Amino acid sequence: MTSAGQWQLVLLAHIALGTAGLILGPVAMLARKVPGLHTKAGEAYHWVMLGVCVSAGALAILDWGRIWWFLPVAVGSYAFALLGYVAAKRRWSGWLRAHLTGQGGSYIAMSTAVLIVNWETLTGTRGVASPWAWALPTVVGTPIIAWVTREIALGRRPKL
């Protein structure tokens, strides 16, 4: 297979996995926090995020000069997803905050990558060079994570 063929194959896998993650994230976030849909979607989200990280790393290696930034965003996204996943599995003291921060942070990172890739289509300028493309998902997502964490601490939302 040619390197262009490898690129297309990895890109297709990356897009499919990323799309699955973008769908699974809200499914898990909005599902009732009991074993069932929430835990199944969360489990699938974790493994999809690992696939997104691996495929993004492969794409970065195949076209380093153009999309080197895929690698740090992918590793950061998966690091957050792993934190959230392990926190929910181990349930150490303070696990729920780590779970919310990890899963929410990974979704923010994935949304950042999607925005950067599509920024030029939306605005006419390269996303990788735009501070707005890099910052907007964090500016929107971080207060939501903080709010949900506070609501749980105040007993206004169910704990997992």
How does this structure look, described?
With 160 residues, this protein is mainly α. The chain has one domain (3-153). Helices cover 82% and strands 0% of the residues. The chain contains six helices and no strands. The chain has helices at residues 3-30, 37-62, 64-67, 70-90, 95-123, 131-153. α1 (3-30) packs antiparallel against α2 and α4 packs antiparallel against α5. The radius of gyration is 17 Å and the shape is globular. The N and C termini lie far apart (47 Å). 29% of the residues are buried. The model has no long low-confidence stretch (mean pLDDT 93).
User: How many H/I helical runs?
Assistant: 6
Helix/strand-derived category reads mainly alpha
User: Gap between N and C termini, in Å?
Assistant: 47 Å
Q: What percent strand?
A: under 5%
* Number of DSSP E strands: 0
The share of residues in helices is over 70%
How many structural domains are formed by the residues? 1
What's the average pLDDT?
93
Main sheet makeup: none
The succession of helices and strands, N to C, reads: HHHHHH
Radius of gyration: 17 Å
Low-pLDDT segments = none
Overall shape: it is globular
Name the features.
160 residues, mainly alpha, globular
Short description:
The chain is mainly alpha-helical and 160 residues long. It has helices spanning 3-30, 37-62, 64-67, 70-90, 95-123, 131-153. The protein starts with a helix and ends in a 7-residue tail after the last helix.
